[in-house]
Write a structure and sequence with these properties.
The structure is a single chain. By secondary structure, the protein is mainly alpha-helical. This is Ankyrin repeat protein. It comes from Larkinella arboricola. InterPro entries: Ankyrin_rpt, Ankyrin_rpt-contain_sf, Multifunctional_ANK_Repeat.
Length: about 500
């Protein structure tokens, strides 16, 4: 027995090591490890090319943490780390090296075939990505320009050039002056007509804005909208908005997508004073953007401060107003906000029986909110904790929500949980007594769906344990065994599906 226990502990420890890659732990890189330590971790089985859920790998983490170039080049030499490998937001390593101002690694990557005109998912070339972060080392831009970058042609998806992108983080305008010396116009605008003053407003640097005005750059109302978006460094202060208003810019300005300043501001925490300021200026909380989302919907979707909802609620005309996809504030809160936010909306008359234009009810949004994982490396962190899921579900049921009601396409909560590939969620549904063998409009049961998407056999075996019938055929006369036999993930992992026969 003792030997068996020791063997179990050993296997468990090895399994835990395999699941957690030290090279994807930010704290590992913060300690500036040398090459010998990195090699030791690789020899232990830590994968030097693995991407985390957010698309970051050890090379990117090393570059961003300012690791030694020796360490970075060692990692680049490992299998799976080609210089043109796509990482977070579709960026190659050259993007990250340029952003950090690491010209030595930039030269190395280019010598290995990396392209300086490569765009990421936002249309950012390497040069523009570095400019967005305010990288002051002009050698970075010179390297890019020597290797295919074009300042006038390289624009992001908003039509912004490097000068516009850089100014928010360019306090003394040295970088701006550099780009002007290279041929960019100080009066450049993006596709929506936003100029360099508006881009400067995003960071809220009043001195920079004043200098730009002295240089002949005009201020227009869109600067208010840009300021409301803030920057990576945080939200802007009330002083910034008051300064912009002193220039006769309109607080009630609407953008090309129909948004007003509060659409962005209500998403950020600790903005109550500023929200009240704009409410006093007549900014409309019922204003819908082009996607049909109102200011109130945006707050309900993500702002966990109930006082914000309380501040907006007296001005809301219809709490059940839906956006272009038929999604209401309650559905957005169920998906992305806290149980307290959901409870507040329900107390104000939010309808639990709404469905969106696809015919999905609140159950679909509740399932999307659930997360059993840590959320490590994921933008925005984890989804709703299991206890939050339970709290929201209970509130909805108390208001008459029928958790057993399928979606318009026939999917039950079991179908939705299987599609999410989350076994812990499946287990939490068992007590709701939903028919595990119900078919959707495609003729598929939850077991059929699991057979198609499962990565291993655990979800399939669990469904069988709670009464899923393996002999039910699909509309095309296929059984769960037939579908599982065609599942490439199961075949690749050599998972036997004979238990489904």
């Amino acid at each position: 027995m003792k030997k068996l226990l020791i063997a179990f502990i050993t296997v468990f420890s090895l399994s835990a090591q395999a699941q957690k890659n030290t090279l994807l732990d930010q704290s590992f890189w913060q300690n500036k490890p040398d090459v010998s330590l990195i090699k030791a971790e690789v020899e232990k089985g830590n994968n030097p090319s693995q991407l985390n859920p957010a698309g970051f790998d050890p090379v990117v983490m090393a570059i961003n943490a300012g690791a030694s170039n020796e360490a970075i080049t060692y990692l680049l030499a490992q299998p799976g780390n080609d210089v043109n490998k796509l990482t977070h937001d579709g960026r190659i390593y050259l993007h990250w090296a340029a952003s950090r101002g690491n010209v030595e690694i930039m030269d190395y990557l280019i010598s290995k075939g990396s392209k300086a005109n490569q765009e990421d998912n936002h249309g950012m070339t390497v040069l523009n990505f570095a400019a967005t972060g305010g990288q002051q080392n002009t050698q970075v831009y010179e390297i890019c320009l020597r290797n295919g970058a074009n300042l006038k042609k390289d624009l992001n998806h908003d039509g912004a050039n490097a000068l516009l992108l850089a100014v928010a983080n360019d306090k003394d305008l040295k970088l701006t002056d550099y780009f002007v010396s290279k041929g960019l116009d100080l009066k450049s605008t993006d596709a929506a007509g936003n100029n360099v003053f508006s881009y400067a407003a995003r960071s809220g640097n009043i001195n920079t804005m004043k200098v730009l005005l002295q240089r002949g750059v005009s201020a227009n109302d869109n600067a208010m909208l840009m300021a409301s978006q803030g920057s990576r460094r945080g939200a802007n202060t009330l002083e910034v908005y008051q300064y912009l208003e002193s220039l006769n810019l309109k607080p009630t300005v609407r953008g090309k997508n129909g948004e007003n300043v509060l659409h962005a501001i209500v998403r950020r925490p600790r903005q109550n004073e500023i929200i009240q300021y704009f409410l006093s200026k007549g900014v409309d909380v019922n204003q819908a953007d082009d996607e049909g989302n109102t200011v109130f919907m945006n707050a309900a979707a993500s702002n966990r401060d109930i006082s914000v909802l309380e501040m907006l609620m007296p001005k809301v005309k219809d709490i059940n107003q839906a956006n272009q996809k038929g999604v209401t504030a309650l559905a957005l809160a169920v998906k992305g906000n806290s149980p307290e936010a959901v409870g507040y909306l329900l107390s104000k008359g939010a309808d639990v029986k709404v469905t969106d234009k696809n015919g999905d009810n609140l159950a679909a949004y509740l399932v999307q909110s659930y997360s059993s994982g840590s959320g490590e490396g994921r933008p925005g962190g984890p989804g709703a904790k299991p206890e939050d899921f339970e709290a929201k579900l209970k509130m909805l049921q108390e208001k008459g929500f029928d958790v057993k009601a399928p979606q318009k396409n026939g999917n039950t909560l079991y179908h939705l949980a299987v599609a999410k590939n989350d076994l812990s969620l499946l287990k939490r549904l068992e007590s709701l007594q939903i028919d595990v063998n119900a078919r959707n409009k495609e003729g598929l049961t939850a077991l059929h769906k699991a057979a198609m998407v499962a990565k291993d056999d655990t979800m399939l075996k669990y469904l069988l344990s709670i009464g899923a019938k393996k002999d039910i055929p699909t509309s095309f006369k296929e059984t769960a065994f037939d579908l599982a036999s065609e599942n490439e993930s199961l075949a690749k992992s050599q998972v036997s599906v004979n238990f489904l026969k």
